[in-house]
Design a protein that fits this description.
The protein has 14 helices and 25 strands. The chain has 562 residues and is an alpha/beta fold. The protein folds into 3 domains: 259 residues, Rossmann fold; 169 residues, Orthogonal Bundle (Glutamyl-tRNA Synthetase, domain 2); 114 residues, Ribosomal Protein L25, Chain P, CATH 2.40.240.10. β8, α9 and β9 form a beta-alpha-beta unit. α3 packs across α12. The chain is elongated, with a radius of gyration of 31 Å. The structure holds one RNA strand of 74 nucleotides.
RNA sequence: AGCCUGGUGGUGUAAUGGUAGCACAGAGGUUUUUGGUACCUCUAGUUGGGGUUCGAAUCCCUGCCGGGCUGCCA
């Protein structure tokens, strides 16, 4: 991309702000963002949008982006998740260099700031129970009432807070709260909790802390400590911004700018960690990396490329309005990337045997096949061909409709890269199912052209019977049958919208021999069928399992449906 | 109900007072040894009503609709 093209591309509202700030010399022209996941689950496509935004902006504006694990709640957080987060980020291709941080790195500083607020008469220790606090908070239309403990002396607060820290009190018996405004229309400002007592081992700090800061008390300050300039988050934090600002101002520390954007929603799926956790725990899917999951690990296993995901994140755009992206855009991005990258192979999902009666039995030859018509550098390969082959059942019809270009009694088709064949006879089994086709071939048509120049409209894929490799294939479809499982009809749970056919297993497909040489996850296109890769979970007997990443576009199927 | 926030083709996103554009989806076509890809054409939009203005998606007023907010989650 040259400079003028860069100029012309319109900036989203966040980039416009960042650009303006940089030009105005705000933060000395520095741009520093961060990606702050909580290690309580796996990263998903929604996170990818945020990742691309934060790392993308840092790169575009000559800045930096930190990775910060927001580990303020040891109840739900695990190192397993932290590890997976880093694996996924690296796979996507982003590098935080030496800037891996944890909110827990700042527990000491956060504690000192809490003490500072107490000394400034801006925070107090509260003995209210969970229920009492909720009652006094008021509601959407009525102001709250102040806690009876709000006027404790600084000394008393300091002493109590110290004891909280030392573990003198039971979990839930006391909190440290900010003194802001119990009548604020923004409920987050009604004396929010800064610290709660949690009798919980922390994955990083062990048992040294008995109290843990809340999100509101940790996030902005963590940003501040790291010198973040633009703190980008999703819309649901909009109501927290006044609090974010309040802490930075009242503590007198560097004040990053929080900017909110709309999170990503995709139809036919769910995009919340909580819901995904349920899918995993209740066994609706086979784990966080189930290829039907919108997690990055699931998508990777399914055969998505990092590039396809990044392209998608760029195309979905960025704004403040709620959005639901159509899953077709995701599929488009995958096909678009794979079309350029994936080498082509031949395979049949549903084999139908063909005997070529005029081909000498016992003879085998090799035909040349192009590895990728979109990439000359991918070269060619040889595929074995002989008297007995298999084609896909979909490519034969005994009684074909008009404009059906594939094989039918008396019709001629081209076997890709090989010969023209003509169907002479249909053999049926005892159930009158088609069990085999007897065909003839045209020896002159080797390579797929005949010297007489006759037109053969249909070209189909095939495999040689003797050398083909059997494999199992997982065909994945959308996880939900409802476009918006997140808010189905009333009383309807999102798991009721699960698509019962989201996984179709083909037990005995046949592929050309070289497919065995692929590595796990390496993309291939089975011509005319779709994009596939070898599953990461391979059976111990050495047999092959393929995952379908996405089917080819199929305009014939669309037409035939009408 | 109160507060906050948002409304541009089916979906998403541009245009910030001057020709409503792009992508995906949909329809049709050309090319093709993948009914793929590529290419071409078409369909389709400013939430309603007032106002300001030579001129409004854009500014003002008002209605309507969507989303968020009453965790010691993040």
């Amino acid at each position: 991309m040259n400079e003028s093209e860069k100029e012309e591309k319109p900036l989203d509202f966040i980039r416009s702000t960042v650009k303006q700030d940089q030009e105005d010399g705000k933060n000395e022209g520095r741009v520093h963002t961060r990606f702050p996941p909580e290690p309580n689950g796996y990263l998903h496509l929604g996170h990818a949008k945020s990742i691309c935004l934060n790392f993308g902006i840092a790169e575009e504006f000559n800045g930096l982006c930190n990775l910060r694990l927001d580990d303020t709640n040891p109840v739900a957080e695990k190192t397993e998740y932290a590890q997976a987060i880093m694996d996924d980020l690296r796979w996507l291709g982003f590098d935080w260099e030496e800037r891996l941080f944890h909110a827990s790195d700042y527990f000491g500083q956060l504690h000192d700031w809490a003490v500072q607020l107490i000394q400034d008469h801006k925070a107090f220790v509260c003995d209210l129970t969970f229920e009492e606090m909720r009652e006094l908070r008021g509601n959407l239309i009525e102001p709250g009432k102040e806690s009876p403990f709000r006027d404790r002396t600084v000394e008393e607060n300091l002493d109590l807070f110290q004891q909280m820290k030392e573990g003198a009190f039971d979990e839930g018996s006391k909190t440290l709260r900010a003194k802001i405004d119990m009548s604020s229309p923004n409920l987050n400002l009604r004396d929010p909790v800064l610290y709660r007592i949690l009798d919980q081992e922390h994955p990083r700090t062990g048992s040294v802390w008995k109290i843990y800061p809340s999100y509101d008390f940790a996030h902005g300050q963590s940003d501040s400590i790291e010198g973040i300039t633009h703190s980008l988050c999703t819309l649901e934090f909009e109501h927290h911004r006044p609090l974010y600002d309040w802490f930075c101002e009242n503590l007198g520390i560097h004040h990053p700018q929080q900017i909110e954007f709309a999170r990503l929603n995709l139809n036919y799926t769910v995009m919340s960690k909580r819901k995904m956790l349920r899918l995993v725990q209740e066994g609706h899917v086979h784990g966080w990396d189930d290829p039907r999951m919108p997690t990055l690990s699931g998508m990777r296993r399914r055969g998505f490329t990092a590039q396809a995901i990044k392209n998608f994140c760029e195309r979905v755009g960025l704004a403040k309005r709620e959005n639901v992206i159509e899953i077709e855009l995701l599929e488009y991005c995958l096909r678009d990337d794979l079309n350029k990258k994936a080498v082509r192979r031949l395979g049949v999902l549903n084999p139908l045997k063909i005997t070529i009666e005029n081909y000498p039995s016992g003879q085998t030859e090799e035909v040349d096949a192009i590895n990728n018509p979109e990439d000359e550098d991918a070269g060619t390969r040889k595929i074995p061909f002989s008297r007995e082959i298999f084609i896909d059942r979909n490519d034969f019809m005994e009684d074909p409709p008009k404009k059906y270009f594939r094989l039918a009694p008396g019709k001629e088709v081209r076997l890709k890269y090989a010969f023209y064949i003509t169907c002479k006879e249909v053999v049926k089994d005892e159930n009158s199912e088609v069990s085999e086709l007897i065909c003839t071939y045209d020896p002159e048509s080797r390579g797929g052209d005949s010297p007489d120049g006759r037109k053969v409209k249909g070209t189909i894929q095939w495999v040689d019977a003797r050398s083909a490799v059997a494999c199992k294939v997982n065909l994945y479809d959308r996880l939900f049958s409802n476009p918006n499982p997140e808010d189905g009809e009333e009383g309807k749970d999102f798991v009721d919208c699960l698509n019962p056919d989201s996984l179709e297993i083909v037990e005995s497909a046949l592929v050309e021999p070289s497919v065995q040489d692929f590595e796990v996850g390496e993309p291939m296109q089975l011509e005319r069928v779709g994009y596939f890769c070898i599953d990461s979970d391979q059976p111990e007997d050495g047999s092959l399992v393929l995952n379908r990443s996405v089917a080819m576009r199929d305009s014939w199927a669309k037409k035939a449906k009408k």
